[in-house]
Design a protein that fits this description.
Blueprint (H helix, E strand, L loop, with lengths): L4 H13 L15 E3 L11 E4 L6 E4 L8 E7 L6 E7 L5 H4 L9 E8 L2 E8 L3 E7 L10 E5 L3 E8 L5 E7 L1 H4 L4 E7 L11 E5 L11 E5 L2 E8 L6 E7 L7 E6 L12 E5 L5 E8 L5 E11 L2 E4 L14 E3 L38 E3 L5 E4 L1 E2 L14 E4 L5 E11 L5 E7 L3 E9 L2 E9 L9 E8 L3 E2 L8 E12 L3 E7 L6 E8 L9 E8 L8 E10 L1
Parallel strand pairs: 25-36
Antiparallel strand pairs: 1-22, 2-3, 3-4, 4-5, 6-7, 7-8, 8-9, 10-11, 11-12, 12-13, 14-15, 15-16, 16-17, 18-19, 19-20, 20-21, 23-24, 24-37, 26-36, 27-33, 27-37, 28-29, 28-36, 29-30, 30-31, 32-33, 33-34, 34-35
Length: 549
């Protein structure tokens, strides 16, 4: 039973201030130590900066075509994180991103604090280098500025020098530029809004450091530093490069590698210093269907080089840590984790949710009545699979194993309209209720190689009587109120279940092997669709979704 509206509104401020603790993954051990990953979700290509307080850390990550884009997470101790905003409400060019443009858009952003403002730069491999900025990273960000029109530039990071000049380091996407494994630097205007110089190659990894990419730019103790991964996403290592000039020449050294740990990669990330003078490195590990999760490594300077993780053999190249003492930030902060569950009690969509394209109100809207409403989206005349669907409401997987249970009510006005829960990737599977005549069918819909245009496979689970129907004679709907559940086990194995009363659940369909999406991990959430035609839209009212062990 939902709260009465007046009580609900009174409770909103307290609810928004509450600390969310995940049931499925909490890196803070409560004893002064943490366990990696500090964010067990797909925040690919993370970068981090610290604000003027010295204790407010902000992280952003690649969002590709997903909207809202550029998630902003906040922490006071680098272990406990909260999603606080997004820097992009709508992707540009709009004509490209108003539809599902998988894998395009925001690649490997960087976040920096400079002269009272926060800046984020990213390379869109098809359109160029963009920048957004704000004075309040938890609030509104300005509209994107096209800094450099280009094709192939990715993984951009600015550096404002002591004399006020600004430089940009970046990589190249081989699929667009025709070459890769090269890092370049060019000068920007002092305000960081446009390129005023031509690129200079500062590092070529084609010989011994293939696939060097994701550079981050720093100036420390008179040295210009570039930190960059090489060797490929699942199998690579971290390089540190230093020079007395932003344009090089740079000498380089491997400073973090898998070694004897279980952390493959480890791939690109960002360096940050606490108020107590400690240096830490946040980077990602590629976990296939789960995406690229965020790890935290201590950094010690030895013989002038940043050694990341723990260097057990003294070769100045560290191994990633699993359990380690928390950063010294001057005090202890409460445990909190990125939100996963959602009661939909606020008239605004939770910050964990994203669409596969620029948001359109026709996709769905929040309500003040304790549910979120999704409208059925009309599929194309030549529909093959849901790779085309822009209106999937999805969030990242929060752990290797978890259960997500949703209470929904679906209103179908015409034959063939359907809605349910989905795990979406290059392969996908969904548990849906679909109108067939004056009843519903419970179906498992599965597609392998969706990105390759392969058709769906449908398995009918059960026939369901409508739980209610409209008494009006104009476009009446029939309704199905039901509980749907997905469970993920280690190894990214997924099973579905359903219940009519929320207490007794029955397994539904076949086990599904999850698979990652285009440069992102698999994501779960809700789907509401209908065949092409002139039928009035049906709608899915999601009462709640709860993520548990």
């Amino acid at each position: 039973m939902k709260l009465p509206l007046l009580l609900l509104m009174a409770a909103l401020p307290m609810a928004s201030m509450a600390q969310y603790r995940s049931q499925v993954w909490c890196p803070d051990n409560g004893d002064g130590t943490y366990t990696n990953p500090v964010i067990n979700a797909d925040y690919s290509d993370p970068d981090v900066c610290v604000g003027p307080s010295g204790t407010d850390f902000y992280l952003t990550a690649s969002s590709f075509n997903c909207v809202p884009g550029l998630p902003i997470l906040h922490s006071n101790d680098l272990v406990n994180w909260k999603i606080v905003s997004h820097a992009i409400k709508k992707m540009v060019p709009e004509e490209v991103f108003d539809k599902a443009a998988h894998g395009m858009g925001v690649w490997a952003p960087s976040i920096r604090y400079h002269n009272g403002e926060y800046y984020i730069y990213w390379g869109d491999p098809d359109h160029g280098v963009f920048m957004v900025k704000t004075k309040d990273p938890t609030g509104e960000w300005e509209e994107p500025v096209l800094v450099m029109k280009s094709k192939g530039i990715i993984d951009t990071t600015p550096l404002w020098d002591d004399d006020g000049r600004c430089y940009l380091v970046f990589g190249w996407a081989g699929s667009r530029a025709g070459f890769k494994s090269v890092l370049s630097v060019c000068e920007l205007s002092a305000d960081g809004t446009k390129a005023i110089g031509n690129p200079v190659i500062v590092f070529d990894g084609n010989n011994t450091n293939r696939t060097v990419e994701g550079p981050k730019f720093y100036k420390i103790d008179g040295w210009y530093w570039i930190l960059a991964p090489a060797g490929g996403v699942p199998t690579g290592w971290q390089l540190a490069m230093r020079s007395k000039s932003p344009f090089g020449p740079y000498e380089s050294k491997m400073v973090l590698a898998q070694g004897k740990s279980e952390v493959n990669g480890p791939h690109q990330g960002g360096l940050v210093r606490t108020s107590q003078g400690e240096d830490w490195f946040l980077h990602f590990q590629d976990k296939g269907p789960y995406g690229r999760v965020v790890h935290l490594q201590p950094v010690n300077w030895v013989k002038g080089w940043p050694v990341m993780g723990v260097d057990k053999d003294g070769d100045l190249c560290g191994d990633p840590v699993t359990r380690y003492k928390k950063p010294n930030v001057g005090k202890t902060y409460p445990i909190q984790n990125p939100v996963e569950s959602d009661e939909f009690n606020e008239p605004v969509l939770g910050k964990q949710w994203q669409w596969h394209a620029n948001y359109n109100p026709k996709f769905g809207q929040p309500t003040p009545y304790g549910f979120y409403r999704l409208y059925t989206n009309k599929l194309s005349e030549n529909f093959v699979n849901l790779w085309e669907a822009p209106n999937l409401l999805l969030q990242k997987t929060p752990a290797d194993s978890f259960t997500a249970t949703a209470k929904i009510k679906f209103a179908a006005k015409k034959e063939g309209q359907y809605a349910g829960i989905i795990m979406m990737g290059l392969d996908y599977s969904a548990l849906i209720v679909k109108r067939v005549g004056d009843k519903f069918q419970l179906q498992q819909v599965t597609c392998h190689k969706a990105d390759k245009g392969k058709p769906e496979e449908v398995k009918v689970i059960a026939e369901l009587d409508a739980t209610d129907k409209d008494k009006i004679d104009y476009e009446p709907a029939i309704y199905e109120e039901i509980y749907l559940r997905l469970t993920v086990k280690d190894g990214a194995k997924l099973t579905f279940a359903y219940s009519k009363n929320g207490k007794k659940f029955e397994t539904a369909g076949d086990e599904f092997q999850m698979r990652e999406g285009k440069w992102i991990g698999a994501k779960f959430g809700f789907v509401a669709e209908e065949p092409a035609g002139k039928a009035p839209s049906g709608f899915l009212d999601v009462d709640w979704i709860r993520v548990t062990k």
